[in-house]
Amino acid sequence: MSWLRSKDSRRDSVIASPNIWKWPDIYEVENHAQDAGDAIWSELSAIAPWIGRDVVDVGCGTGFHLPRFAETARSVIGVEPHSPLLGHARNRVLEFDHVNVLQGEAARLPLESRSADLLHARTAYFFGPGCEPGIREALRVLRHGGILAIVDLDATAFPYGTWMRDDLPKYQPLLVEDFFRRQGFSLRRVDTRWVFPTRALLDEVLAIEFSPRVAARARRETTGVTLDVRYRIHWLRNTLS
Question: Domain Methyltransferase type, which positions (predicted)?
Fold first, then answer.
């Protein structure tokens, strides 16, 4: 998904996400492999049940998660800033009359105020400080009692988080957690397993997620066709009227 930092609503707030922007087909393989046991979905449904409610997926990419929400939600809107991904997302949800995909950014959502019950952003917010305009915009769109749920990778956990920190030495996951805590978010950690049909596909995914050096390290340190990956869910209930 596109990384939405939202530093300043007057400027471009989109940080390129090279994995899905450059290699959408391989990223599709990654999406299918992730969270094989539905642990994230279980936690999300406990935090913010969406049956019969209105859902917004910010940074929806090719729309991979939209059909899952659409199974039980009253309405689903995907918002994606990167034009080439919009067609993929729209094609994915053609069978659903209650799903729409719009182009937009986190700090300028093309949505009415108080129009959603759940705003979901998966692997779209990583950076903590700088996301304040996007958080404010989410609270504008959410109804009273609605939930902003930000799902990201937990870089404190072995092994995937270790590779992330090796690849992004300036990224400090504990500072990101502190940022969201100070913004009023609660935190849940979710352990998941990624399961790939072949080792070759696992290696291809590692190659788009990490630099060549770190991808080579990850391949050496991985056996079989599975990866244990921990996520974080930062979530905030809108208490504004």
Answer: 56-150
